[in-house]
């Protein structure tokens, strides 16, 4: 196979991975607090040489180097559920799981059978003392101030722990809208917590559909080039074979 085909295949492989990312964005367009992603590519140059020259030109391949997360805040939607909390601005809720501390923008919480504030998977939501937030059986009116202070008819209960990190791109998805990282969390001193609100996904379906169409067209264009290259090589082989037999 010639270099042209290798270069075209590297582009097709990159487009295929880009399509997977776009498809995942589309699938999570309605997932609370989901952050859209996009592929990062770079030009990968490979030096060439021939029997006539030790140093030739360079071949340009396409190489994917990672996924970039769009950390912009999604739109906030009113739910009127007193246990739905949205973060406006920087920050993540701290969640204690069996695998350690995890972090989430998704603030769709509930109370478990013990009165503890948990996320949809049943993991405890931490307060600013790294303790679970537990309500007494007679506490039914939960109110959360914009700074994260949680109170009921019996008074102050706790304060939600909201943290941020130096580099959000180094946070890895841990499933169920959670993130994990080896970075040290920094407490957000003045968080903005909105009770009865949910942060929606920041994915824009129309934009993703446009990207999907563009990727498909580019993939088909590369495939046409591969087919043309295949025909060219086939004709060359046939011509050389005809010349040799005569």
Structural features, described:
The protein is of the alpha+beta class and 246 residues long. Helix content is 27%, strand content 30%. It is built from two helices and 18 strands. It has helices spanning 3-27, 205-245, and strands at 37-47, 58-69, 76-78, 85-87, 92-97, 100-104, 110-111, 117-118, 124-125, 143-144, 149-152, 155-159, 162-164, 172-175, 178-180, 186-187, 193-195, 197-199. The strands form seven sheets. Strands 5, 6, 9, 13 and 16 form a five-stranded antiparallel sheet that branches. The protein has a three-stranded antiparallel sheet with strand order 10-11-12, with no helix packed on it. Strands 1-2 form a two-stranded antiparallel ribbon. The longest helix has 41 residues, at 205-245. The radius of gyration is 27 Å and the shape is elongated. It starts with a helix and ends with a helix. The model has no long low-confidence stretch (mean pLDDT 91).
């Amino acid at each position: 196979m010639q270099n042209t085909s290798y270069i075209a295949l590297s582009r097709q492989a990159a487009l295929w991975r880009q399509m997977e990312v776009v498809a995942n964005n589309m699938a999570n367009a309605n997932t609370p607090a989901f952050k859209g992603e996009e592929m990062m590519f770079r030009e990968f140059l490979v030096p060439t040489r021939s029997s006539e020259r030790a140093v030739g030109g360079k071949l340009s391949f396409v190489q994917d180097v990672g996924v970039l997360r769009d950390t912009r805040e999604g739109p906030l939607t009113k739910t009127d559920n007193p246990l739905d909390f949205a973060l406006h601005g920087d920050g993540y809720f701290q969640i204690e799981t069996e695998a350690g501390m995890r972090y989430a923008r998704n603030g769709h919480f509930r109370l478990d059978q013990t009165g503890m504030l948990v996320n949809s998977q049943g993991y405890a939501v931490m307060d600013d003392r790294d303790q679970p937030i537990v309500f007494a059986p007679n506490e039914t009116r939960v109110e959360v101030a914009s700074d994260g202070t949680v109170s009921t008819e019996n008074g102050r209960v706790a304060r939600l722990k909201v943290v941020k990190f130096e580099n959000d791109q180094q946070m890895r998805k841990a499933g169920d809208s959670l993130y994990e990282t080896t970075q040290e969390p920094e407490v957000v001193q003045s968080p903005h917590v909105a009770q009865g609100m949910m942060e929606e996904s920041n994915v824009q379906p129309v934009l993703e559909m446009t990207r999907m169409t563009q990727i498909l067209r580019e993939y088909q264009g590369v495939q046409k080039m591969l087919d043309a290259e295949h025909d060219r090589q086939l004709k060359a082989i046939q011509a050389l074979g005809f010349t040799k037999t005569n």
